[in-house]
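SEQUENCE WITH STRUCTURE:
===
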Amino acid sequence: MQMSGFPPRMSNKTGVWNPTMEPVHNQNFTPTPKNQNLQRSDYHSWLNNIYLTTWTKTELKNIYNTPTITFNSQNFKTKVAITKLCTNGIYYRKISNGELSAITNSVKPFKKTFDYSNTTNYRYWMSSSLAKCRAFGNEAATDTDEVIIKLVFNCDLRDPAGFKVKAHQQPGVQSESAAVAIHREGFAEIGAINASLQVIEILAKNFDHNLGFTRDHLDLLNTALESWEVVGD
């Protein structure tokens, strides 16, 4: 009921009686659309996942709030399942049967592989995750018959004496043979590992990762290796 002495509640825009003003107030409001490629339940689960990096969570927020971004949610979900923490000193490498044949009688398997790929910046890649190696291939493999080897080291290769660990896609690192390269390809990662702050977080939080060594690190690898064995495909 209109109170005596007060003018009717009129919309300034429409000139129509409106007892509450709410419809007029909200008439131009529309909810911000969300990216339909990223389900709300997955989105919130991933934001709370302790194994995902802060920059990946920032990218997930951007994707979720940008409907035009193409995102393969199922592929990312598969990677989330294998993204965990590393165990210090234990790494895995998926190799071809050809590489396995070459190193079978070698106590230290590195030199023959470096001799075969004899370039200054060739990198011997290892992963901290067996699950990652089983799920994804290795760039060094040359045939479809592959096996995985486990390498056990007596020191923390993330903090190698005399060398620096650097982001693999940081400018200049791929051609810097003295640097130990690190990336998270195959894990639940969005974007490249290309900055020192990313490396700091990966190491500080003990995240799964991949390390790449050049021939410059051959003595380090030989000295630090305690054992290696085939663990499966």
Notes: The chain has nine helices and seven strands.
